[in-house]
């Protein structure tokens, strides 16, 4: 699913956030990327998600060589093949749960009624069938994150990348969100979770540890 070969990312100013990292993630894996603050986890997620291009090295996602794709092709690949979940949810304020999810399907070319139907179905699947019309400020943190996950997976992407998905949640809501991610993995989605929470990482079948921009095991 993912192959990084000698990937280096240097930011302007000279920080080497990724230092010749090589990593393979198989289709259907559930992987945690852990490491201390500043070790390069978010940079890794940006590179894995094609949100950022490396300074050197090769990134392959599915069978695509990312370096060979134009920005427009990369955006299309990202929209269709990769779902993102962030610590701070990133939902549109003042917009209902169902519209937040349906708007994530704009790229599909489905008609508005079909997008809405699909959004409702996914929200039911994540246990929010009774919260369809709620706007973000009317939802709990855990519910907001479940809406964000519903939006990320509504288009059925084979790859889901989550950056500290439980970081802003209390432990009960965090557990619910983790269980949802485990369910998606069980359904066949490749899931990569960035976390500095050791307890969460310990529950994942594979952990990739980072330190100073390198993978340590
Ligand atoms: N846009 C940027 N410009 C310059 N330096 C950056 C930029 N983004 C990150 N860095 C630097 O790159 C290094 C890795 O940052 P990154 O955010 O990937 O770490 P992280 O492991 O996700 O940290 P945290 O757990 O604190 O979020 C840090 O030293 C950081 O200061």
TrEMBL record:
Q: Which SMART domains match?
A: AAA
Task: Write out the entry's keywords from A to Z.
Answer: ATP-binding, Nucleotide-binding, Transport
* Any one GO MF annotation of this record: ATP hydrolysis activity
The UniProt record lists the ABC transporter domain at: 2-217
What PROSITE patterns does the annotation carry? ABC_TRANSPORTER_1, ABC_TRANSPORTER_2
**Which Gene Ontology CC terms are recorded?**
membrane protein complex; plasma membrane
Is the keyword Nucleotide-binding in the record?
yes
- Transmembrane region positions? none
Q: Kindly list any coiled-coil regions of this protein.
A: none
Asked if the record carries the keyword Nucleotide-binding, the reply is: yes
Q: What's the protein name?
A: ABC transporter ATP-binding protein
Q: Which organism is it from?
A: Streptomyces coryli
- Biological classification of the source: Bacteria, Bacillati, Actinomycetota, Actinomycetes, Kitasatosporales
């Amino acid at each position: 699913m993912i192959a990084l070969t000698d990937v280096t990312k240097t930011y302007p100013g000279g920080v080497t956030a990724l230092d010749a990292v090589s990593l393979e993630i198989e289709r259907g894996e559930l992987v945690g990327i852990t490491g201390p603050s500043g070790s390069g986890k978010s940079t890794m997620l940006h590179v894995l998600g094609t949100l950022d291009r490396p300074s050197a090295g090769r990134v392959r996602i599915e069978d695509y060589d990312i370096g060979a794709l134009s920005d427009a092709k990369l955006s299309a690949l990202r929209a269709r093949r990769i779902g993102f979940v962030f610590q701070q949810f990133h939902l549109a304020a003042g917009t209902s749960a169902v519209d937040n999810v349906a708007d994530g399907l704009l790229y599909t070319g489905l008609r508005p009624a079909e997008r809405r139907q699909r959004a409702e179905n996914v929200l039911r699947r994540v246990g929010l069938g009774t919260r369809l019309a709620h706007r973000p400020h009317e939802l709990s943190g855990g519910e907001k994150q479940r809406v964000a996950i519903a939006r990320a997976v509504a288009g059925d992407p084979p790859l889901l990348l989550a950056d500290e998905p439980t970081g802003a949640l209390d432990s009960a809501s965090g557990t619910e969100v983790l269980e949802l991610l485990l369910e998606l993995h069980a359904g066949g989605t490749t899931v990569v979770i960035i976390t500095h929470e050791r307890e969460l990482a310990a529950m994942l079948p594979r952990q990739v540890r980072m330190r100073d921009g390198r993978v340590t095991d």
